[in-house]
Amino acid sequence: MFTDIKAVLFDLDGTLIDSAPDLGAAADKMRVVRGLPSLPMAHYRPMAGAGARGMIEVALGLTPEHANFDVLREEFFKNYEQCMTQQTYAFDGVHDLISGLLTQGLPWGVVTNKSKRFTDPLMRSMLLFESAKVVISGDTTPHAKPHPEPLFEAARRLAIEPTRCLYVGDDERDIVAGRAAGMRTVAATYGYLGQKADPLQWGAHAIINFPADLLQLLHKA
Q1: Residues near 125 by Cβ (< 8 Å), separated by ≥ 6?
Q2: pTM metric for this prediction
Q3: Which of 65, 124, 127, 168 is most buried, by the most CB atoms less than 10 A from its CB?
Q4: Is 47 within 8 Å of 192 (Cβ atoms)?
Q5: Catalytic residue list contains 70
Q6: CA nearest to 76, candidates 46, 129, 117
Q7: 117 touches 145 (CB < 8 A)
Q8: 13 assigned to active site
């Protein structure tokens, strides 16, 4: 299944990096300035993969249908910009995973729904991303995942057929987008997943519980 892979693409938050502490801090600040008690990080972590929508729902109990949601989202974004590199780290094993891909001569990159406004500062702040050959943000193309266009764009920039690419993510949208692009897909269970997520139902070609498991899949191939 993975014998002809020529490039590996990754989702960002919950797959390569653990940004939940900074996302949670940005949301919790919204509570504190409103005189509400701070919430433990355990409340925010399961919803970190849902971005601003998930964080605001945890912090204030409000959904995108709320009349002032756009204003609240921008408040969250400004909070996040101030703290986004303070407590964000690569998951254990990710550095070794990337080193292993480079040793095998496999180019790698990132396809995320995070907007360029946040992706670029994160890339610059972490040495991990110096070897990335392509980075596609949520606003790089007119569409975001689960639409396949961001993955098609990554493949075009790598000059590699989508069918020769592997996409790894911790959200069902990642798998839907990857399959729609004709890529092989791998679901990562060590990320955020969400409260009711079941990766077995996503239709991924494989599931990994640790970053190193991906190297084992490729070695077996």
Answers
A1: 85
A2: 0.95
A3: 168
A4: yes
A5: no
A6: 117
A7: no
A8: yes
